[in-house]
Amino acid sequence: MLRVANLKISLDGGPEAPLEAAVKKLKIRRDQVSAWHVSKKSVDARDKGDVHFVMAVDLAVAGEDALLRSLKAGVASKVPPVAALPAVRAAYKGLRPVVAGFGPGGLFAALALARGGMRPIVLERGQRVDERKRSTDRFALTGELDPESNIQFGEGGAGAFSDGKLTTGIKDPRCRLVLKELADHGAPEEILSLAHPHVGTDRLPGVVAAIRQEIIELGGEVRFSSRLTDLRVKGGALCAVGYEDAQGKQEIAADDLILAIGHSAADTQQMLFNAGVQMIQKPFSVGARIEHPQAAVNRSQYGRFASHPALGAAEYHLSAHLPDGRGAYTFCMCPGGTVVPAASRRGGVCVNGMSAFARDGENANAALLIDVRTEDFGDDHPLAGYALQRAWEQRAFRAGGENYFAPVQLAGDLLSGLETKRLGSVRPTYRPGVTCADFRAVLPEFAYEGMRAAIRIFDRQLKGFAMPDAVLTAVESRSSCPVRLLRDQRYESSIAGLYPCGEGAGYAGGIMSAAVDGLRVAEALMKKYALLEE
């Protein structure tokens, strides 16, 4: 097939408009095309008087090689081969590998291993994704705390709040494979073509469950409510994995363990440190969620086209260098979304954001974050960043009233250096509730002042960002992991057979990059046993 990119398509164009534009650019007849589809779609809103779509179209055309040779350079190109998990060339006969964690990294590592005939055992400290969602929804709506649920109060579980944003800056061909697998397991087909693909909080649990079911059908096993507690090492190499479930302490003989524990498993990181796994401090970020009316964001981004039915809820991504040299940026922007609880420790408040697939909520929200440098840690211990996170989350807990309400401050009050006494026109979406506060009691000074400077700068990039009634909800402290587990070119740690993976290992920063890292690690493990070509 041929790919024709950079096609300007009117918002009012009909379903055949992309094909018509591609045919015109190729200078061929419509009847020469036997099949076609849109492979990339984005919105170009740089000129508010001419908002339009930019698309790439893939076409099956008779005699495409000759046609391609006749075209000027850049008009069209060959469509790259469809990505696929690598085929194994031998049967695996060793001990079953263990995967600790079932977020994006662990999920895709386990899928690849299962298809390679290695029958992985997955240890997931949380509940099944459907049960986890019910627990999360109950807490978000009512504030009812489940004392048995480690989604709320284990050391892990923050990944349960993901809404399936699949945007990434990495340029790895495995990204296409991840999108295809998600779509094959029930995600919306449009993720294969959108420039900013999104599954949605409401649809993601079903997709995860479908992938889990395939892993099980291929001989894998997923053990829920199973917390990794110990490593057995002999001669510098892994020989067994200890974990704890409802029945007590358990052990699995294993030569290989993929660590996909996520960025919030501080207790597991402590165990790994005690076991001698080499790790170093890693910078991360801290800040709050900021909420604006989605209609205001639409107007700012799309101008007079804001209400056009062809356009969905508008997005934004903003960044700046602050006067003190730190970076400020928005992260995980959720159009038409909600701010949700992401606490994983008792006595702490931590927030995140999510959107349903429809993105039809009243507010837009995004993390407004300031860089945290390793010199801010105040200690050279590799896990010192977790202590900072815990301290800020405890401050937020106290400022919120010690009842798991989140502290909020209006943007106008923050800019004026005033404590918020009452809310304005923007209704906060965080449940179970919020408490008006002064963020000087929650955030470190560099983050407080950094957010004030960033809001003013971002208002010049996105008109209305400094809206006085915009609501800031604290504290967002889990955007990335504050530690990196060292690994070599074979993806192994300082303990042979131990494979750090994904966000919790410090090698990813979102769903896509974590999933891709899971595939890389699984491939490395299969190459170790000569199941794949080097």
Structure description:
It is a single chain. The chain is 28% helix and 25% strand. With 534 residues, the chain is an alpha+beta fold. The protein folds into three domains: 2-78, Alpha-Beta Plaits; 98-280 and 481-528, FAD/NAD(P)-binding domain (3-Layer(bba) Sandwich), CATH 3.50.50.60; 283-476, no CATH class. Strands 14-15-18-13-21-19-20 form a seven-stranded mixed sheet. Helix 11 links the parallel strand 19 (406-410) and strand 20 (434-436). Helix 3 (104-115) runs parallel beside helix 7 (204-217) and helix 3 packs parallel to helix 13 (511-528). Mean pLDDT is 92; it is low at 138-157.
Short description:
The chain is an alpha+beta fold. The protein is built from 13 helices and 23 strands. The strands form 6 sheets. A 7-stranded mixed β-sheet has the order 14-15-18-13-21-19-20.
Annotated CATH homologous superfamily of the largest domain: FAD/NAD(P)-binding domain
Terminal Cα span:
30 Å
Tell me the number of helical segments per DSSP (H or I, 4 or more residues long): 13
Structural class: alpha+beta
Task: Please give the share of residues in helix.
Answer: 25-40%
The percent range for strand residues is 15-25%
CATH C-level label of the largest domain: Alpha Beta
Enumerate the strands of the largest sheet in spatial order, edge to edge or round the barrel.
Answer: 14-15-18-13-21-19-20
Coarse morphology:
flat
Count the strands?
23
**Arithmetic mean pLDDT:** 92
Largest sheet: 7 strands, mixed
CATH architecture of the largest domain: 3-Layer(bba) Sandwich
CATH fold descriptor of the largest domain = FAD/NAD(P)-binding domain
The overall number of domains is 3
Spans where pLDDT lies below 50 across 5 or more residues = 138-157
Radius of gyration from CA coordinates: 24 Å
